[in-house]
Write a structure and sequence with these properties.
Helix content of chain A: 25-40%
Oligomer: heterodimer
Structural class of chain B: alpha/beta
CATH superfamily of chain A: Methylesterase CheB, C-terminal domain
Strand order of the largest sheet of chain B: 6-2-1-7-8-10-9
Helix content of chain B: 40-55%
CATH architecture of chain A: 3-Layer(aba) Sandwich
CATH class of chain A: Alpha Beta
Order of helices and strands of chain B: HHHHHEHEHEHEEHEEHEHEE
Order of helices and strands of chain A: EHEHEEEEHEHEHEH
Distance between the termini of chain B: 57 Å
Strand content of chain B: 15-25%
Largest sheet of chain B: 7 strands, mixed
Strand content of chain A: 15-25%
Number of domains of chain B: 2
CATH class of the largest domain in chain B: Alpha Beta
Shape of chain A: globular
Largest interface: A-B, 19 and 19 residues
Bound molecules: S-adenosylmethionine
Number of domains of chain A: 1
CATH topology of chain A: Rossmann fold
Pfam families (chain B): CheR (PF01739)
Radius of gyration of chain A: 15 Å
Largest sheet of chain A: 7 strands, parallel
Protein name (chain B): Protein-glutamate O-methyltransferase CheR
Number of strands of chain A: 9
GO molecular function, one term (chain B): S-adenosylmethionine-dependent methyltransferase activity
Strand order of the largest sheet of chain A: 3-4-2-1-7-8-9
Keywords (chain B): Methyltransferase, Transferase
InterPro entries (chain B): Bact_Chemotaxis_MeTrfase (IPR050903), CheR_C (IPR022642), CheR_MeTrfase (IPR000780), SAM-dependent_MTases_sf (IPR029063)
Radius of gyration of chain B: 20 Å
């Protein structure tokens, strides 16, 4: 068990699910990063998604649990119904305060929190979705020296979320789905 | 000076300063709180009040009553009646049969926010004919939340979403049997309001104040670091009678080995435990 050196964030909403699966499938067996996935979904449904994905990817998909250390080579999912934050000592922290952009977990909340702790070792991907969550988070990632990547709205099933982030971002790379997958194939 | 357009973002070091100041001037110790969420709350308060760090420190030191307002705003009082219906279902079917054996029941809703959890417990007890011999204590650090809890009045919009939760618990009566609607709000029935005592209690610094057969502390420990969690879990252990029950939030657990050893797991995913030694 070693603390993650780098953090890769994936924020997605409506229309992002199958792309996220392809991204996760492309990740090499051993990486010195942690991957954190935040998908908007209804808190009333249980966490079947993690279980079926674990089987499919043949590697553990771990729910991000309160006050647990963030480890290398691990894929975490944010729990529905709670905001996910990162403590300065690089453990997770959950929060049940009001939704942000009608969302809990909110992409803005985890992006900002991770960006501040991991600074230039933070890379954030913002994908398809029907609201504006993530735009502010992308700006905060850039402010703290991290890398911001937004799905090309032309490739997004619902382009509201990526388009809105592109308007407010100062330096995000806009990538096609194929390029995003290539990125995940080459994660160290 | 407060800048209107460009909000000042505080750092973790700034947060430490504020926590230190509060400890010195108000004797309130927030040093065991989760830093990331505490910082978000302090930032939110500063944005709302259009304060920068200097303004904030100044207000803590010099503005009368600011401190109570500060606690009110940095705590997260978001709650629901019958939040996690499955939990209440399990409580009724698995925990209450044990409780039947006690002639008197004392129940503690710790970190009760605006009272919804305490009233839910009270309604559940009534459904199982246990309310007559029960008394519920609802406590919170926020005086404002405690005041709202005492009133037992909730907006109809909230009642509507609480009804959805209630209907998923699997009880015989209708949720509307338990409150009286008045235009756009509803008041929880007298029998429930008379069965709960709400008061101010700080889990960081206050100690055991009674002996309980059931303690619910849900969605409070996530705001604390491991060390403070351990302290609070210890207070709960000492406050429980032997074979009493401890219920935590769905994302909280009795992770600490030493405390864990004194409990039996009743339901792992719903985090229900029974004190066995
Ligand atoms: C998210 S609410 C939980 C409400 C309810 N238990 C539930 O699960 O719906 C958390 C509550 O913990 C309270 N709290 C925070 N710090 C506390 C402390 N040191 N002592 C007592 N209560 C505290 C807050 O004021 C807030 O009302």
């Amino acid at each position: 068990m070693t603390k993650a050196e780098n953090i890769i964030l994936i924020g997605g909403s409506a229309g992002s699910y199958s792309l996220i699966i392809s991204m996760l499938e492309s990740i090499p067996v051993n990486i010195s990063s942690a991957v954190i996935v935040v998908i908007h979904r209804n808190a009333k449904y249980s966490t079947q998604m993690e279980k079926s994905l674990s089987l499919k990817l043949k590697r553990p998909i771990v729910p991000a649990e309160d006050k647990v250390m963030i480890e290398n080579n691990t894929i975490y999912f944010a729990a529905p119904g709670y905001h996910l934050l990162i403590e300065p000592d690089r453990t997770f922290s959950l929060d049940i305060s009001d939704p942000v952009n009608f969302s809990r977990p909110s992409i803005d909340v985890i992006f900002e929190s991770a960006a501040e702790v991991y600074t230039n070792r933070c890379t954030a991907f913002l994908l398809s979705g029907a609201n504006n969550d993530g735009a502010y988070g992308i700006k905060r990632v850039e402010y703290f020296g991290g890398t911001s990547i937004i799905q090309d709205p032309l490739d997004a099933i619902i382009d509201t979320m990526p388009s809105s982030a592109i308007t407010t971002s100062s330096k995000a790379k806009v990538l096609k789905n194929k390029e995003i997958i290539n990125y995940f194939c080459s994660i160290k | 000076m407060a800048k209107l357009n460009d909000p000042v973002h505080i750092t973790f070091e700034d947060l430490e300063d504020v926590v230190y100041l509060l400890k010195k001037v108000a004797d309130y110790d927030l040093s065991g709180y989760s830093k990331s969420s505490l910082k978000r709350r302090v930032q939110r308060l500063m944005d709302m009040e259009r304060m920068d760090l200097v303004d904030l420190k100044n207000a803590i030191l010099n503005v009368e009553g600011f401190f109570g307002y500060f606690i009110q705003e940095i705590t997260v009082n978001v709650t629901e009646m019958f939040r996690d219906p499955l939990f209440y279902h399990e409580l009724k079917n698995v925990v209450f049969p044990y409780l039947q054996t006690y002639p008197q029941l004392r129940i503690w809703s710790a970190g009760c926010a605006t009272g919804e959890e305490a009233y839910s417990l009270s309604i559940l007890l009534q459904e199982e004919n246990l309310l007559g011999r029960s008394f519920i204590y609802g406590t919170d650090i926020s005086q404002q939340a405690v005041n709202t809890a005492k009133k037992g009045v909730y907006t109809m919009a909230k009642i509507k979403s609480y009804t959805e939760n209630y209907n998923r618990v699997g009880l015989n009566s209708k949720f509307s049997d338990h409150y009286t609607a008045m235009y756009d709000a509803a008041i929880i029935n007298n029998e429930y309001r008379n069965s709960v005592l709400f008061s101010n209690h700080n889990l960081v610094s206050d100690n055991v104040f009674n002996e309980f057969q059931l303690i619910c502390c849900r969605n409070v420990l996530i705001y604390f670091d491991r060390e403070l969690q351990r302290r609070v879990l210890n207070v709960f252990y000492e406050s429980l009678s032997l074979f009493g029950f401890l219920c935590l939030g769905t994302k909280e657990s009795l992770y600490s080995q030493e405390i864990n050893a004194n409990f039996k797991v009743i339901n792992k995913s719903l985090n229900i435990y029974q004190k066995i030694r």
